[in-house]
Amino acid sequence: MAQVHVMDHPLIVHKLSLMRDKSTGPKEFREAVEEISTLLCYEATRDLPLKEVEIETPIARTKASFISGKKLAIVCILRAGLGMVDGVLDLIPNAKIGHIGLYRDPDTLQPVEYYCKLPTDISSRDVIIVDPMLATGGSAIAAIQFLKNYGVQNIKLISILAVPESLQAIQEEHPDVEVYCAAIDEKLNSKGYIVPGVGDAGDRLFGTK
Ligand code: PRP
Ligand code: URA
């Protein structure tokens, strides 16, 4: 298994249950995705380095710690990853944002790239990839490889739902990448959907079905 952090905090579990319910509409689904993303990002940024700086409070001089180290970029896998970006930006508002367009071929389930726009200094940034679904893991694996080819050295992946096979595939291809997710579901069905899952995350976010 990849280095996986499953964030089964009650707030996340509750919001994920809302996502799972097929009667939840796009507005509430989007809100749940955004809020879960913020909570997952909180944990994924736990190891950001801090640097002490001397400052003055209104009372005294003191040393205070501020985030230091490499700058961050969020890379969003289109389309469904878009739903996670604002939730992550709530915590790291100065991050630059890249987009990689990938869709799964419905027959082969292989990721097909159709768009890519990354910050020009991406190779000098630490990257958080966002995509709510890790089904076969193919899309995430392709996006990680893409970023490594650009020279990115430190990558984390924030997702919402995974299954054991996607985590295993990511571990095999990219054992250095830590994964943060809300739950690991049981399996994939014959069409490559997560069971019990949430259905097609992109369609539910954007109301396209
Ligand atoms: C979904 C999801 C992931 C991918 C996961 O995207 O957002 O990117 O499937 O599946 P995988 O792990 O088997 O690659 P989809 O291809 O449905 O495109 P969309 O976001 O544009 O709807
Ligand atoms: N993509 C989705 O949006 N949902 C799944 O269950 C699997 C892949």
UniProtKB/TrEMBL annotation:
Q: Ranges for the Phosphoribosyltransferase domain?
A: 6-208
Query: Which InterPro entries would you find in this protein's record?
Result: PRTase-like, PRTase_dom, Upp_B, UPRT, UPRTase/APRTase
User: How would you summarize its activity regulation?
Assistant: Allosterically activated by GTP.
Pfam families hit by this protein: UPRTase
Q: What is the enzyme's class at the highest EC level?
A: transferase
Q: Where does uracil bind?
A: I194, G199, D200, A201
Q: Which cofactor does it need?
A: Mg(2+)
| One GO cellular component term noted in the UniProt record for this chain | cytoplasm
Cite the cofactor comment.
Binds 1 Mg(2+) ion per subunit. The magnesium is bound as Mg-PRPP.
Record keywords, A-Z? Allosteric enzyme, Glycosyltransferase, GTP-binding, Magnesium, Nucleotide-binding, Transferase
Q: Name one GO biological process term.
A: uracil salvage
Reaction catalysis annotation = UMP + diphosphate = 5-phospho-alpha-D-ribose 1-diphosphate + uracil
What Gene3D superfamilies does the annotation carry? 3.40.50.2020
Highest taxon above the source species: Bacteria
Q: In which pathway does it act?
A: Pyrimidine metabolism; UMP biosynthesis via salvage pathway; UMP from uracil: step 1/1
What EC number(s) is this enzyme filed under? 2.4.2.9
**Residues where 5-phospho-alpha-D-ribose 1-diphosphate binds:** R79, R104, D131, P132, M133, L134, A135, T136, G137, G138, S139, D200
Which GO molecular function entries does the Swiss-Prot or TrEMBL record give?
GTP binding; magnesium ion binding; uracil phosphoribosyltransferase activity
Cite the SUPFAM superfamilies for this sequence.
PRTase-like
- Say what the protein does: Catalyzes the conversion of uracil and 5-phospho-alpha-D-ribose 1-diphosphate (PRPP) to UMP and diphosphate.
Q: Which family does it belong to?
A: Belongs to the UPRTase family.
* Name of the protein this chain belongs to: Uracil phosphoribosyltransferase
